[in-house]
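Anyone up for a design puzzle?
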């Protein structure tokens, strides 16, 4: 146990260190006067709208998660899904792992089941995340090949297209292939039985993608709101590229909660639209502040929960998710 703790502590310190290196690099290579100017000239009252839009978007995500979880046999109210989603947002601020708040969401969902089924709860959370990533990937790809993506270097556009096609192909063939090879392994048989309902209910999955697209359109709206508040002269449709790329960069498990790579992405892609590095950095800061403040709302729901998981229980939940991800559980 001590070995595992030390390994996790070292990973955490490494990620914090990488984020700090990014931050120091950004501030060293940008004009502090320009940063201050961008901050002062922003209409901060407009940014409050971003917080409310983000919170509304999480309700949509909770509804999407509910569709997936119901396929797995979980029957609780939408209010509970929303509560767990907000708590997951809150823990995303404090759990610097690959899965973050997903640990808490799967933990609470499993506790609502009479048999405390962990695997189906985990898969519903992972399916929610996976469908979101797939939608983000395709939004960015389509936007890059639109007239608004002509300023994006061709190699980046081609890589995005290749990745989108690849993950879509894997998604389509995953269960047929798993069904064939599952007969050779009891673990794979269990995995297939736990996830086959997602492929056997195309109408439900279609609805999941519909709500996922709506959610990401709201997030893009927040980006446009930040741009408007800062007075940036960036075409609205260009944020259909900026947001997906920053989100994808934030998924990279090298830094603390995506801090650093995400801001670097804002700086790079906004620079292609003529935005200075200082303004782009401030843009990234505003986005982080909106997410941070909105996520604190989850702390209220967390305190109100009757059962607050211990650190050991969360460690076990995290291990369960990582085991499912590596198909070794």
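Challenge accepted. My sequence:
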């Amino acid at each position: 146990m001590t070995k595992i703790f030390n390994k996790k502590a070292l990973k955490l310190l490494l990620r914090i260190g990488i984020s700090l290196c990014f931050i120091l690099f950004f501030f060293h290579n940008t004009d502090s006067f320009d940063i201050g100017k961008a901050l002062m000239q922003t209409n901060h009252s407009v940014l409050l709208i971003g917080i409310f839009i983000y919170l509304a978007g999480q309700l949509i995500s909770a509804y999407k998660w509910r569709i997936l979880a119901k396929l797995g046999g979980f029957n609780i109210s939408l209010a509970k899904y929303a509560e767990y989603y907000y708590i997951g947002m809150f823990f995303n601020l404090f759990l610097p792992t690959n899965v973050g708040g997903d640990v808490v969401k799967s933990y609470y969902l499993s506790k609502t089941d009479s048999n405390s089924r962990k695997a189906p709860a985990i898969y519903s959370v992972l399916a929610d995340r996976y469908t979101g990533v797939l939608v983000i990937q395709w939004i960015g790809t389509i936007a890059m090949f639109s007239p608004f993506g002509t300023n994006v270097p061709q190699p980046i556009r081609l890589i995005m297209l290749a990745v989108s096609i690849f993950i879509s192909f894997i998604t389509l063939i995953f269960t047929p292939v798993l069904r064939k090879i599952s007969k050779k392994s009891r673990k794979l048989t269990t995995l297939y039985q736990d996830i086959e309902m997602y492929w056997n209910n195309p109408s439900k999955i279609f609805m999941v993608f519909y709500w996922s697209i709506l959610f990401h359109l709201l997030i893009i709206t927040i980006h446009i709101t930040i741009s408007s508040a800062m007075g940036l002269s960036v075409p609205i449709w260009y944020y259909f590229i900026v947001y997906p790329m920053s989100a994808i960069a934030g998924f990279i498990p090298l830094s603390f909660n995506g801090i650093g790579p995400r801001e670097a992405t804002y700086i790079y892609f906004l620079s292609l639209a003529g935005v200075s590095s200082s303004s782009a950095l401030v843009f990234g800061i505003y986005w982080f502040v909106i997410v941070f403040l909105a996520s604190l709302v989850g702390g209220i729901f967390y305190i109100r929960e009757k059962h607050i998981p211990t650190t050991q229980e969360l460690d076990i939940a995290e291990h369960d998710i990582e085991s499912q991800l590596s198909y070794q559980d």
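A detail worth pointing out: The radius of gyration is 20 Å.
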